[in-house]
Amino acid sequence: MRHVTLALVMVFCALSATPGITQEEAGFDVEKISERVILVTDRAEGTEQLAIASEKGIVVFDTHWSNIPAGKFRAAIAEALGRDDFVYTINHVYRLDYFGGNETYKDTTIIAHEYFREVLNKELVGAQLKEVIEMWRWKEGLSRERLLKHEPGSDKGKNERSWMNKCKRQADDLEQGFTLYPPTVYYKDRMTLDLGDVTLKLIYFGKMGLNGITVFHMPEERLVILTSFVMHDQHLAPWIPKQYIELDVPRWIAVLEELLSEETGTEKVVCDMGVWTRERALRRLFYTKKLWEEVTALAAEGLELDEVQERLSLERGFAFVKEMETYKKHGDKWVRPQHINHVKGFYQQHRRPEPEAVKE
Known about the structure:
Layout: E1 3-6, H1 9-16, E2 28-32, E3 37-42, E4 48-54, E5 57-61, H2 67-81, E6 86-91, H3 96-99, E7 109-113, H4 115-119, H5 122-147, H6 155-177, E8 185-187, E9 190-194, E10 199-204, E11 214-218, E12 223-225, H7 249-259, E13 268-271, E14 274-277, H8 278-300, H9 305-311, H10 325-330, H11 332-348
Parallel strand pairs: 5-6, 6-7, 7-8, 12-13
Antiparallel strand pairs: 1-2, 2-3, 3-4, 4-5, 9-10, 10-11, 11-12, 13-14
Helix pairs in contact: 5-6, 7-8, 8-11
């Protein structure tokens, strides 16, 4: 893939003046994902944004956590493509630090799943914003504690400090630059955008704690775009919240099977803001599908959770997990608790209480 270093004087100066960011770190990198799709990365933050350069205009995915980073990325994308005809902005997930900069793209058509319309009110968003800010402050504190354990000047120490600074900046920016600017168009199940020379298909992925998740298919580019909540380098299956709330696992599987089928001709899968092969994504789908089928069968037999966990442990029914990239890269201490969490989350779907009958 082609990588381009992007030097924007205005953005460079703003970043260079930020504590903890060196001149070498300031600026943006541009990676060409396909003929029309680029990935722009803030070198200092490690944050990214996808953009499509289509015949009808530029399409961007998400707007970060506030108008501060959104403005920097918009300028970087326009500079990289040599044009500024932004036409569509897509909010792919209902999480405040993913659409806090929508106002920066108020001149475009902003699209999201209809779930956004149901929950976008000032009172609810205000409470959620406080929670998200507290989450980033908490992550900053954890990182600060870990930093003390690293040798000064070591690579691990530098990476930890960079993460700590990022957490702090995200919390600061949310406090200073978040605005509630709602989408202008909503879709329910599917939506297709005709961009002139390319087609972008939007598909609702299903409930998973972060409702409103959209995944994408670009047939002409042989490309599928998945959020990191669906597939991530560090996770075996789609993200499950600790509350084990309602999960549309059968829908997850059906959507992924469709997008990764041979009929689609998919060659590349963008997830976790990296590019995977179709085969690598299929291995994650295999894990998710097998786990769901096994848990469903054992729950139907009436087995309790501890029995199901034993049957589907990494030493028995799911020993193949130890051959997956995630396990080899991140190890048992990271993957085993995650597998246990997935088993529990899937099992809970078969033990959800029936809704109470309405009393006359």
